[in-house]
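Intended use. Records like the one below are meant for learning the mapping from a protein sequence to its folded structure. Do not use them to infer anything beyond what is encoded.
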Amino acid sequence: MEERIQVRSKIWLEAAGRPVLGEGRRALLQAIEEKGSISEAARFLSLTYRKAWGQIKFMEEQLGLPLVLNLTGGAGGGGARLTPEAHELLAKYDRLIVGIQEQVNKRFQEIFYGKR
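Structure written out for the chain above:
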């Protein structure tokens, strides 16, 4: 087998067999942080507002953490931002993903190419 072949994996967190946090929901939280709005984040990711809101509420319920703060309107309008808990969750998830991918790559090299 040629060494140009690579291995890829997808990791997500589940509760009761249902995905709680994976790349899609991570992207949603990141987009909320960048856009400052759930509706703008949903539009950016080609989601309906209802779907985005449902995913946020599901994550919050399953994790037992507030993830998004809705800001009240005013002259500049409302908006949303991530809570400190959401920032910590994303940082931990990112560390998990990087660590797992490194281990998967190492194991792949050992098994398929005999490298240690």
